[in-house]
Amino acid sequence: QVQLVESGGGLVQAGGSLTLSCATSGIVFSISDMGWYRQAPGKQRELVASIIGGSVMHYAETVKGRFTISRDNTKNTVYLQMNNLKPEDTAVYYCNAFSKKDYWGQGTQVTVSS
Length: 114
Hints:
Layout: E1 3-7, E2 10-13, E3 18-25, E4 33-39, E5 46-52, E6 56-59, E7 67-72, E8 77-82, E9 91-98, E10 102-104, E11 108-113
Parallel strand pairs: 2-11
Antiparallel strand pairs: 1-3, 3-8, 4-5, 4-9, 5-6, 7-8, 9-10, 9-11
């Protein structure tokens, strides 16, 4: 059974930082493409950052220079370091794994106050 469990969300003031974690099980993590998505109220889910092929990283233009995605293959965990957070970063953040098919976590709420 595949499980993706996010943690690390919360309430932070603008300019602050948070680190999200996504612990996985049931997939071959080291060869899985991993990503973080977010969905704000009334908006579509959007890709925030991804690691493809283990090392190629992609970022949405809105988060470049502020967010960093990383992975620890020894812990089967992917991280999203978020710095200089803005109110528009407020959303539910979802972890995604692609290992023959897409898998999703339950989401973690990030709220940035102005």
